[in-house]
Design brief:
Protein name: Alanine racemase
Structural class: alpha/beta
CATH architecture of the largest domain: Alpha-Beta Barrel
Cofactor: pyridoxal 5'-phosphate
Largest sheet: 10 strands, parallel
Strand content: 15-25%
Pathway: Amino-acid biosynthesis; D-alanine biosynthesis; D-alanine from L-alanine: step 1/1
CATH superfamily of the largest domain: Alanine racemase
Oligomer: single chain
GO cellular component, one term: cytosol
Family: Belongs to the alanine racemase family.
Helix content: 25-40%
Number of domains: 2
């Protein structure tokens, strides 16, 4: 009998989330961000499913773009970290990749490249994130330098928000002002500024391209929110099953470190999942979980292959019962908050030993 641990990926929910993003982006167009293995859902499955509706895809690195080309042969792909070696520009020109240029070193490598066809690029602008990108004052010089290279066309200017997940934060307004000034200076160039959070906190459709990522997968991009509160559906359900049930007496400890002890007679279940599968080891006692569709809580430390749950209010629970670690009953955002992290990390950490099971009524 196979181990019951699996990640169910509902591609119909993915489509509905994308349509939600596209509506918020209108009249701009929403680029589906599928980096980090489709945020843990499987880049090939996600891209194949969205190819009929997404005008473009976005990834972080060239290797991800090449993986996309194996299943999506024609859709343009934005490579948000760009490329670094002169010979990598050739792949961009041959495979319809659109690399971001964010550093003088990349500009130099493009000058040194031997292109065998045209390549379209975007310029990354640092408007306050202070991670990647050219200062806004350098954009005229960089734009002129790029367009002086034969075969190179600059399509758009892009930036990334630092605090768009905090509604009405003044830093977002400051970043928008920088991009508005650049639009006035270069009205012929498209712009892309809106990440998932900005679909809810800015007028995202005022730019030609938005870049929804985490919202496509149903996790909430705003602080103190869940996907469900924003009209999104959980695409991944991480589930396993009870493999043992036992009764604890007052004073009985559970798991490594014995940092949880029963203070009364307690019915406990053991679930076949742990941090070796990507479930967070930092999840403390009290983290929500659902057994047979009913919410309960973790008790004790998460082990590599197992964790324990409180069955005190679930007297009928038995070995073999389905356990949802996150999904539609327990939000991944709730688990992330309890664990001191964000839904992005949890979804992308689900390991390869957890099989992905694809669902789609339209398939």
């Amino acid at each position: 009998m196979p181990r019951p641990t699996r990640a169910i990926v509902d591609l119909d929910k993915l489509h509905r989330n994308y349509r939600r993003a596209a509506a918020l982006a209108d009249p701009g167009k929403a680029i589906a961000v599928v980096k980090a293995n489709g945020y843990g859902h499987g880049i090939e499955a996600v891209a194949t499913s969205l190819a009929s509706v997404a005008p473009r895809f976005a990834v972080a690195i060239l290797e991800e773009a090449l993986a996309l080309r194996a299943v999506v042969p024609r859709t343009p792909v934005l490579v948000m970290q760009g490329v670094y070696e002169p010979d990598e520009w050739l792949a961009c020109s041959q495979k319809n990749f659109i690399p971001a240029v964010h550093s003088p070193e990349q500009l130099d490598s493009l000058r040194a490249a031997r292109l065998q066809g045209p390549v379209t690029v975007w310029i990354k602008v640092n408007t306050g994130m202070n991670r990647l990108g050219f200062p806004s004052g350098d954009v005229p010089r960089v734009l002129s330098a790029l367009e002086a290279i034969p075969g190179v066309a600059v399509e758009a200017l892009m930036t990334h928000f630092a605090q768009a997940d905090e509604p009405d934060h003044p830093r977002t307004g400051d970043q928008l002002k920088v991009m508005a000034d650049l639009r006035s200076a270069f009205p012929e160039k498209s712009q892309s500024v809106a990440n998932s959070a900005a679909h809810y906190t800015t007028r995202a459709g005022e730019n030609e391209w938005t870049r929804p990522g985490i919202m496509l997968y149903g996790s909430g991009p705003l602080v103190r929110s869940t996907g469900a509160t924003l009209g999104l559906e959980a695409v991944m359900t991480l589930e396993s099953a009870l493999i043992a049930v036992r009764d604890l007496q007052p004073g009985d400890a559970v798991g490594y470190g014995a940092d949880w002890c029963a203070d009364r007679p307690t019915r406990m279940g053991i679930v076949a999942i742990g941090y070796g599968d990507g479930y967070p080891r930092a999840a403390p006692s009290g983290t929500p979980v659902a057994v047979g569709g009913r919410r309960t809580r973790l008790i004790g430390r998460v082990s590599m292959d197992m964790l324990a749950v409180d069955l005190g209010e679930l007297p009928d629970a038995k070995p073999g019962d389905r356990v949802e670690l996150w999904g539609s009953t327990v939000s991944v955002d709730e688990v992330a908050q309890a664990s001191g992290t964000i839904g992005y990390e949890l979804l992308t950490r689900v390991t390869s030993r957890v099989p992905r099971v694809l669902l789609s009524a339209s398939a």
